[in-house]
Amino acid sequence: MREPGIDYHAIFEASPSAMLVLNSVLVILDANRSYQNLVARNRDELIGQYVFDAFPQDAESEIEDDLKASLRRVLESHDQDVAGPMRHDLEEPDRPGVFAERYWSPINAPVLDSDGQVTLIVHRLEEITDLVRAGGADVDHRRRQMKLELYARSRELQQVNERLRQTNARERQIALALQDSMLPAPQALAHHQAAVRYRPAVHALNVCGDWYDVTQLPNGKYAVAVGDVVGHGLAAAGVMGQLRSALSAAIRVVGGPASALDGLDLYARSVDGALSTTAVQTIIAWADHRITYSSAGHPPPALADPDGTVRFLDQATDPPLGASMEHTPRPQASITYTDGATLVLYTDGLIERRGEDIDQGLQRLADHLARHGNGEVEALADALIGLSSATDDTAVVVVRL
Description:
There is one protein chain. By secondary structure, this protein is α+β, with helices and mostly antiparallel strands. The chain is 36% helix and 26% strand. It has two domains: 8-152, Beta-Lactamase, CATH 3.30.450; 184-400, 4-Layer Sandwich (Phosphatase 2c, domain 1), CATH 3.60.40. It has eleven helices and 19 strands. The strands form four sheets. Strands 1, 2, 3, 4, 7 and 8 form a six-stranded antiparallel β-sheet that branches. Strands 10, 11, 12, 13, 16 and 17 form a six-stranded mixed β-sheet that branches.
């Protein structure tokens, strides 16, 4: 993910590695300072030229064929390719017509667009003249040997990368199936609207330890809950599935949110990896315009009134599951709402930022709901998930009351 405020072109320009940027037809688009210094050419002499016109070769040279083959493999495989070491002599700046013997080790890496197509190629060049010369007089023999060895190693690495890619693709499909089975779309809420969003942390599989649940209860009530298991990935997701199912069952048979979390707390003490899980359970009574709730160490749900007032449901908070040495009954509170209000439940990835106090995150959420809380629920859910941290799992439930 691209971080705001970082000047990536400045990083490219300052890199100690000599690099060219080519487009998909091998025209030079940019060259960093290290590359210009290495080949003793300035940017104006390079940009806009077909790369092999910028560095013409003798008719009998193998360099152009080798480099073309490497670039072709990048375009076809969409993966980086290491070309074998090659000789390309450069004219000495202070001695026109005199060429110095130089050896190079190139690597080519693709830049892909959102559809996975190669739009750019980063061509990195490392000079290995001293290394080749140190090998003795039989330079051509050593060059050929190094070329074969490097090519063999690069092929092996590319094959390993392809196997890893296929394995990751299979794991991702499993993860998606697991997510769909454990976190289905919310049931229809009679004449009301609800939207959910679920986003794992960057680099995680498409499952995590966050969950949501929307459950229909007797007498026209609905239970809405979210929770957050410590950790990421499949292990956390397995614990999440157990706790979500247990809480969803408990809220159907006990008297209220606090009793449901009491039962979940006892159950969590017997599940590996479940301790310190946070959760909040709410029950919406449409007829009474009342929300009853209880929280086990979880960030407070937000209630946005149609006039822009935002209230947090923070009057019934207790420690996370299993955090107390002895099990004690949990608190419960209730709050009334007006028609058209919006209830938002979420996990901490929505409000937490590294180096920032949690109150700042809560204020950011309140400000957003004050301005946009009356918007359509699907659009509001999209906007809220866009506020979340990419480094933490996030689940969001939006209910129009």
